[in-house]
């Protein structure tokens, strides 16, 4: 949908159609309203997300043209981004997840275009070269690594449509790799403290987990236990258990909702969309229905575009990209129909406004972590808290996975202050981690109402 007006983003983000929100002719809107739209900043309240005073349900797609084997930054290229936003608007989504960005590049044009379309960004801060290696987490957790992550935060905290940061993706995907959990959680802690110390707005930070029967629940509770500065702000997992035709009961979704019924932070699906059978996306109606909204906050369909030359039946892409052309696949129409048939809820979905942290899981045959101690932040990284991270290494940097562990350092404090002592307890420690918003918007509408001589609020 081209030429969408700048009052559309708020309506689209909260689930309304862009058509009803963009009825004002563009030639009647002053030029200063056509600059970067400012979407309401999203915050966490209880076990839900809120945009201003309205519950925010994530409805989006995972967006990484080229895939993990050809990592490029799709939101550093204005032409690519604007090409794909046309397709996003057809789906009327409000979120895209991007797995890899170049933190040395400029993202103003694309983030502005996304905001103008009412779309938020869920961002993985890791890249193929700067990530926790699940086989050797201690060696890959170092100041070079954190400098890259903090530089990404520096870049994207300036945009009101930065929805959240993922501290990791499927780093824990088996029983043996649960040993990496303290390092993933330490990254969450470090990001939260860095955001607080730099006095940025409180952008939610959390983890995107693999849907592993052995330790899915343990992972969720581990990320939500301990002190406030260590706990995740949300928990997400990549769930492909609903394969059409299926139901709330037979897909295992009912059991998962029951398992997390008392979970105190938001949960959503960071990937979904089984391809074992023809995808009709029947799960969309259930995901945004009353059976799930008290616990879940929506999800992201995997994935926007086809990757490489995967065998028939293994393709997840909603579209096929060839050069500058985009070809919508059957899955695109199926998802479009599913979204059209399932409006976003307009109420609070029965969310829980309060709740208690989880109890840390105990060591077992499926969970190899003992206690709640976390690695101390690498000492050299403390300088970034005071001076900022500086320019990021981008996608061509030398990488951090082989930089080696540093001697134990200390840095923790819920207030975001780096200190010389630590309450975090140091612990010793496969495959690199996969890469598989309010008053401003309202003020804009008020000013525009005055300009047109109409009451829009």
From TrEMBL:
It is a lipid-anchor; GPI-anchor. It is an enzyme of class 2 (transferase). Keywords: Glycoprotein, GPI-anchor, Lipoprotein, Membrane, Signal, Transferase. One of its GO terms (molecular function) is 1,3-beta-glucanosyltransferase activity. Residues 1-23 form the signal peptide. One of its GO terms (biological process) is fungal-type cell wall organization. Residues 338-360, 385-428 are annotated as: Disordered. Splits internally a 1,3-beta-glucan molecule and transfers the newly generated reducing end (the donor) to the non-reducing end of another 1,3-beta-glucan molecule (the acceptor) forming a 1,3-beta linkage, resulting in the elongation of 1,3-beta-glucan chains in the cell wall. This is 1,3-beta-glucanosyltransferase.
